[in-house]
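Protocol step 4 of 6: structure prediction from sequence.
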Amino acid sequence: MDHAPVNRAYSLPPGRALEICEQIEAAILGHKVRPGMKLPEDEVGDTFGVSRTVARTALQALAHGGLVTIERNRGAFVSTPSVREAQEVFEARTLVEPRIARMAAKAMTSEALTHLENHIEAEHDALDKGDMGLALTLSGSFHLAIAEIASQNILTQILHSLVSRSSLAIALYGKRSDTTCESHSHHALLTAFRKGDEEAAEQIMKSHIVDLHSGLNLSERKTSERSLAEVFSDS
């Protein structure tokens, strides 16, 4: 299914800078790039084969979307959400996504449904192969695909930021290491979409986001010492 370009969590930079933003964001969604990781301009440039100017443009765009924090005299870091920020992100998703699911159920077509089914098959395939990073990335983008089907551009833009930032929160505070329950919820959503059941889609999505939120341990932070170059050399 063809969709209009996704509204990003950041302002769209030109050319290679946009590609770098997309790759770093995908690494964040897949929990390969962790909260607090330092992102020196020269390392970003070397990793992606671009100048420091292009690297700086990409980092500034990511900072605009809340995925990167730029500190004076220290440089750029992958954002580290506080406990309060993590709470607020999931509270916002609980408010926004059930409504999006209801609108998607109303707007659902056979073509859109096939697109979501193919998406879940890809997620299962990644799980079967033990590629948890890809499975997590697909899990996040499944929610964005639903928002696109609902044809709500502003909500899609808001959700893009929330999904990316909640991925940071899960990487930092998450108690679970798999996406099994998420996969079950996605199947339940598909069933509601097939039936055109707007009420069920709304309630399933609400329960799903509440479950994701309950999977956080907000008293313990996880950290990583890997560098950006190490992450992308493994890709």
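Step 5 (inspection) to follow. The two ends are 27 Å apart (CA to CA).
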